[in-house]
Amino acid sequence: MNKTMSVLTATAALTASLSSFGAAPFPTPVKAETQATTLSEDTNQSAAELVKNLYNTAYTGEMPQQAQGLTINKSTKGDVHAKLGEPERPSGGDNRFDLYHWNMGNPGYGFSYHQDMTISEIRYFGTGVERQLNLGGVTPEVLRNELGAANRVLTVPFTDEIDYVYNTGRYELHFVIGKDQTADHVNLKAK
Length: 191
Description:
With 191 residues, the chain is α+β, with helices and mostly antiparallel strands. It has helices at residues 3-19, 32-58, 77-84, 140-147; strands at 98-100, 108-113, 119-126, 152-156, 161-168, 171-177, 183-190.
């Protein structure tokens, strides 16, 4: 008798003996591959929804969720600070972005500004908690399935990351894919 059959037989015997005492039966164990398939399907579905949401909001020059309403070439650094508070890491030196890190399941963002202090670029970092259900689930395959072929594919200098660029009206949405073949971050810029 193989190991799986032994476990199932033992579970059935235990359930039957506990049932005779009025105890609630134990559920039959689920195979690990079924659980892995479900997680993979959830990841793909969550990633697909995120990609569509990012793409659709990009047409307005915005990013979704907490950054909704902050528009490239229109909203100012003051607008960003009023909506999101002071950045955890302000721009300056080598860092050209005001950075807002993820917390409690909320995504992280970065904002870069023109000289007139209007937003020039918004960077979406996704969430740190359950990342595989957010940017960690976005792969080139998910992008292809949801958005079709990218308008351009670039290599990011010095990082070996691949940048899949999608045109969204007056804006470009850049999905930056890391060495692990998942999205590291997403940039939104004016064309």
